[in-house]
Amino acid sequence: MDASRTSGGQFLDPSHFLQLQFAMSEKSGDAVDLGHHLSELAKRRKLSPLKGLQKITPKPGMVMLASGTPNPGYFPFERISVEALGPDAFAAAATTVNTTGFSWLRSLFNRTRTTHFAIPRYPAAKGDASLAEALQYGPATGLKMTQEFIRKFVERVYAPAYNNWTTLVDVGNTEGWSRCVLTFCNPGDVFLTDEWTYPSALALADPYQVSPVPVTMDAEGMSISALRELLASWDENARGTGRPHVLYTVSVGQNPCGMTTSLDRKKAIYEVCVEYDILIIEDDPYYFLQEGTYVRKSDRQGSRTLGGDDFIRSLTPSYLSVDYQGRVIRLETFSKVVAPGSRLGFFVCNSLFAERLERCGETATHSPSGFTQGLVVQLLANHWGIDNYLIWLQGLRTQYTARRDTIVDSLLENFEVSMAYSDGSSYLRGLPVYSCFPHAKSSLSRSRNGKQIGRVLSVVPPTAGLFLWVTLHFDALPPPQPSGNPDDPNDHETRLWLRIADAGVLVGPGTFFAAIPSAANPNEGHYRIAFSDAPLETLAEAMSTFSVVVHMYFEEMLTA
Amino acid sequence: MDASRTSGGQFLDPSHFLQLQFAMSEKSGDAVDLGHHLSELAKRRKLSPLKGLQKITPKPGMVMLASGTPNPGYFPFERISVEALGPDAFAAAATTVNTTGFSWLRSLFNRTRTTHFAIPRYPAAKGDASLAEALQYGPATGLKMTQEFIRKFVERVYAPAYNNWTTLVDVGNTEGWSRCVLTFCNPGDVFLTDEWTYPSALALADPYQVSPVPVTMDAEGMSISALRELLASWDENARGTGRPHVLYTVSVGQNPCGMTTSLDRKKAIYEVCVEYDILIIEDDPYYFLQEGTYVRKSDRQGSRTLGGDDFIRSLTPSYLSVDYQGRVIRLETFSKVVAPGSRLGFFVCNSLFAERLERCGETATHSPSGFTQGLVVQLLANHWGIDNYLIWLQGLRTQYTARRDTIVDSLLENFEVSMAYSDGSSYLRGLPVYSCFPHAKSSLSRSRNGKQIGRVLSVVPPTAGLFLWVTLHFDALPPPQPSGNPDDPNDHETRLWLRIADAGVLVGPGTFFAAIPSAANPNEGHYRIAFSDAPLETLAEAMSTFSVVVHMYFEEMLTA
Q1: Do B206 and A48 touch (CB under 8 A)?
Q2: Cβ of A547 under 8 Å from any chain B Cβ?
Q3: pLDDT tens readout for residues B124-150
Q4: Please, which of A21, A505, B75, B369 could form a disulfide with A369 given CB 3.0 to 4.6 Å?
Q5: Distance from the B277 Cα atom to the nearest Cα atom in chain A, whole angstroms
Q6: 3-state class (DSSP) for residue B46
Q7: Is A506 close to B50, i.e. CB distance below 8 A?
């Protein structure tokens, strides 16, 4: 065990600090002008004509009869009161949330504090939060308190590497990426992405005739050499389109594969992007859920709560920390760290892009919900404060680490396991891979028809996020026989997936996540398994069921 | 006075009921297929690949590990409690909201009931609202309780004239119209709109290269003959684009002019739209704020609270009630009847369009805020119920009627007034117009330089909504003299607007609302004056200030 491991399974690599300090010392000035990346649509957007009213500087006592704001006395809500968990609700690693039976009740008693607050219709004192303000029409940039909180948080946590960075609210990362596609891509454009990627990101871009170009992955996500080769050898005529100028990546807790791109790798990818003039869209919902390298149960040590700045330093930094030119657009959301129903997120990017992204939003969503802004920002900014919010985030990381450990432990327990660093040519290259062979007690464990049964599946435990990515190895199996019904699936991945569902466990089939589904290797199958929701014991049972069905499927296929 | 006037200044025209019944008896079947109206973009949208999971019907007890929903135990919110006004808070016409001084406190005592409720983390009983559900990822169609409430409300209030109408949530009418532009218009398309219209609707469409074609207005909004002539004489070559197939209109409380399109007119426009195969986008935020025909103070009678169905019948019906083919897309919002910060609205349209509009939304906003859905729908659906919500809406109408009456009264008091039905060629044609001449006590009231001073301004009191539209007549004035500074405005409308602002009253300049600003008549100026927010006495004072400045400006121009 590395002695520097201190929290939530996360390794604190001292070289990170040096690199981060170096990156930050490069903070030399403002963003460079990247206006040529704007789409034709983005360039055509004008200021709303009603903004012309801003020519007039309101004087004290001015009667404002220009816009149709209802009198806040007409809002039916008088007062909204909140009872919330304390920020240290999950700080103790021993407390794991469980929604079944009494275990939830039990966990109530482990909490040290509860946060109470209320938002009245009118502010109790000048500057206080009020429903009159939160529920009124507000700026597309969000309420003042939202803006201030986000700005302070970004400054503290990411310390962007140039001066005039800007933040802008949106209604979550899906909407954030949607604005990016409209603002940076013209029809016919292509964008770089990981070879396994978030399918909704592709589905969103597709109708705008903006398509993905997958980049080969390795242990740390996108491969530098693959990226460089792809760009250097780009043939505009053969490809039918110019070289991509946008890179979309989930670099922390990669979706679906779960790996995290190191600071070194980020710096190297950033330099390629500088060389080829590419924007980086960093979709980063799992940043604070960095669970670190998986350690087998027998070798695992406890974690302890870190101070806010130590917690920040324990996290692999964002692309923002190396972005000295302002070519990163970070998408962050409260969905995974507060609640998905918040529909609140934000951009961090250069001010020129922020202005265009604001124009894009003001004529669509207008602004995030005032209920959300009032309740979420009041809780985080005014009742917890950033230091306590960092304790909350650290508590969540502890929770997700326990979940990641449980699901990986449970899967490995059901197989004979060997760990090695893969030298394969796939995205696994260089990763610590747990190869899973049939369980010794299973009839599969013997050789069959004179053929030795090799590994059935392999797994690379995630280092962040919500998902376990499992690779099935179907090499030993005969090709699936057609059932006679053309509606039936004719590949092992889908057939096995349906069997697992039949046994009561629904996982995500791997093909959903392929940037180019037709490029998938038919001898491999994948499943994305979310460990974010079910109680720990259910996760363990589900992995046992999963493993039994995998054993049975292989047995049946080899017997047939 | 017409004896049928019963509530909130609204005339109940018995022929409306017959027409409505006739329209409803035409409800003969399902929507016709209007799929050819979809834009190329809309046709390209695919089902999200993750929806493929829906192939699997979840069984009881199935462990769901396919999607990354966080465990609701990780949401920091334990319980949100609400204190709200009772639904009858504004039912008595005498109660008017006032945010200054003690008048607001006073109005507290007029309320008969307060509504209290709380949403806990977990449902108290099966089917109850909970934060666990509201704050989780939810369907793009909204929470089940939201869907049910909206469907019941639409059925009760609008009774759409075909069977398979569908409702779909959005985050307000701006976003609703944004989805319509993307779903029905290709770049280069034009759409029909009122000659004076909501500028943000144009600003939204403009960067998509979708532009307005203004239709002349009269007393009831869009003129049938002008619409028919425009379409019949459409010259594709001269116009450079095909005949418009989308009509955008705010037909109740027209923004900015304030008139309301009658059911007869709606039926006639609808028939033109059937003939020319045009979709009607009905942007209708002010539907429940139908203040009816303005009656001068001396002739005014009190209003009384109607039962829910009588209230519904007192409202000029929506285009939905004549839409037997499914070519109306209604946009409705909670912004003006609950609070703008809700960012919650909905479509009512045919099911084919609803499906495409859902696809458009699911890859952008995803769904409205769960805080909003939880709090707003719990209040309206479960704690008030539709009957009480109708009382709330009627109370708001009473409030806005009092506001409309106050602002018009105050304006007219400051001039010598004559009322007549206009026979002008402008949008005023056929309307009861109040012509305002200089006040008898003003030095302006005399003839000047041998020239008789005619009407200074005219006003057509709005019948619904939040805005008073005032027309200034500059005919008698010499053209504005250039100031020498090229940045200074060189038209009377802007110069007078700045003077009014200088005197402490900010109104909206008319040019902002012209569908084609360059087409405006230089001898006329307009201001849109919002009466939705300021206390009644402030509205009265502001109109006095406004009138003084108008008198002074004319005086000065005629003396110079």
Answers
A1: no
A2: no
A3: 898 889 999 999 999 999 999 999 999
A4: B369
A5: 26
A6: coil
A7: no
Sequence-ordered alpha helix ranges (H) in B263-385? 263-275, 308-313, 351-362, 370-372
Q: Answer yes or no: do B135 and A501 touch at CB < 8 A.
A: no
Q: A380-396 in b/e burial notation, b at 16+ Cβ within 10 A?
A: bbebbebebbbbbbbbb
> For residue B541, which phi and psi values (nearest 5 degrees)?
-65, -40
Contact B135 A97 (CB under 8 A): no
**Alpha-helix runs per DSSP H in B426-531:** 492-502
CA gap B536, B514 in Å, rounded: 29
Q: Which residues of A touch B174 (CB under 8 A)?
A: 363-366
| Helix-, strand-, coil-residue percentages of chain B, each rounded to 5 | 40, 20, 45
CB of B505 within 8 Å of a chain A CB? The answer is yes
In whole angstroms, how far apart are CA B528 and each of A66, A92, B248, B497? 7, 59, 20, 11
Host H or E run for residue B204: helix B199-205
Beta-carbon contacts of residue A138 (< 8 Å; ≥ 6 apart)? A367, A370, A373, B341
Helix (H) or strand (E) holding A81: strand A77-85
Of B63, B74, B507, the CB nearest to A506: B63
CB contact under 8 A, A97 and B74: yes
Nearest to A366 among B338, B343, B504 (CB): B343
- Contact call for residues B178 and A363 (beta carbons, < 8 A): yes
Whole-complex ipTM? 0.91
Torsion from C-alpha of A503, A505, A508, A510, nearest 10 degrees: -50
- The pLDDT of residue A429 is 62
For residue B292, how far is the Cα from the chain centroid? Answer: 15
Q: Cα distance from A104 to chain B (closest Cα, Å)?
A: 8
- In whole angstroms, what is the distance from residue A15 CA to residue A265 CA? 13
Q: In this structure, what DSSP letter does residue B481 have?
A: P
Paired with A469 in beta bridges are A528
pTM of the shown model: 0.91
Q: Which domains does chain B have, with CATH numbers?
A: 119-288+319-384 (3.40.640.10), 403-559 (3.90.1150)
DSSP state of B298: G
A363 close to B198: Cβ distance less than 8 angstroms:
no
Residues of chain A contacting residue B106, judged by C-beta atoms under 8 Å apart: none
Strand spans (E) along A246-402: 246-249, 279-283, 328-333, 345-350
Residues 122-181 of A with CB under 8 A from B: 122, 131, 134-138, 171-172, 174-175, 178
Inter-chain touch A50–B508, beta carbons under 8 Å: yes
Alpha-carbon gap, residue B361 to B368, rounded angstroms: 10
DSSP, collapsed to helix, strand or coil, labels residue B120 as: strand
* A63/B contact by beta carbon, under 8 A: yes
Query: Is B50 close to A508, i.e. CB distance below 8 A?
Result: yes
Q: Is B110 on the interface with A (CB under 8 A)?
A: no
- Look at B65 and A512 and tell me if their CB atoms are within 8 Å: no
How far apart CA A322 and CA A266 sit, in angstroms, is: 8
DSSP label of A188: T
Q: Is the CB of A371 less than 8 angstroms away from the CB of B367? A: no
Relative to beta strand A77-85, strand A114-120 is antiparallel
State the Cα–Cα distance between residues A327 and A271, nearest whole angstrom.
11
Interface test with A, best of B255, B371, B401 (most A CBs within 10 A): B371
Q: Which of A417-431, A503-517, B280-294 has the lowest mean pLDDT?
A: A417-431
Rounded Cα gap, residues A159 and A318, in angstroms: 9
Question: Å from B115 to nearest chain A CA?
Answer: 9
Q: Detail the DSSP E strand segments found in B27-147.
A: 63-64, 77-85, 114-120
Contact A366, B172 (CB under 8 A): yes
Q: What is the pLDDT of residues B247-273, one digit of tens each?
A: 999 999 999 999 999 999 999 999 999
